Amino acid sequence: QVQLVESGGGLVQPGGSLRLSCAASGSIFSINAMGWSRQAPGKERELVAVIRRGGSRNYADPVKDRFTISRDNALNTVYLQMNSLKPEDTAVYYCNVEVRLGNGIDYRSWGQGTQVTVSS
What we know:
There is one protein chain. The protein has strands at 2-7, 10-12, 18-26, 28-39, 46-52, 57-59, 67-72, 77-82, 91-101, 106-110, 114-118. By secondary structure, the protein is an all-beta fold. It starts with a strand and ends with a strand.
C-alpha cells in the first residue's frame, strides 16, 4: 500500500554531517506525519524527530539543537539534516510515516532502516 525508500546513511567522523531522506509512495491521499526513529546498539529504539501535517516539529532532547527535520510535500519526502554528529548518534535510522489512504483509513508504515555510523 505504501512504500518507503530511505537513503543518506553512511560513515562520518565526529562533528560531521549527513542528510537522510525518505520518499513515500503508493496509494496516498495525504500524509499525516513523517518522522525518524533510531536504534543504537544495546539501546531501545527512540523517536528522533517528527513533522506533522500542519508543519509542527518535535525532536528528541539529544538531537534537538543539531538535527532538523523537513519535508517536501510535492515529493512525499521527509529529510533529516544531521549536524555536529556524535558517536552516540550511531544507530540504524528508520523512516516512518502515517498516511491517509484513498479510502479514508490512516495507515502507518516503516522503512527498512539506514545505518549511520559516527566514528573516527
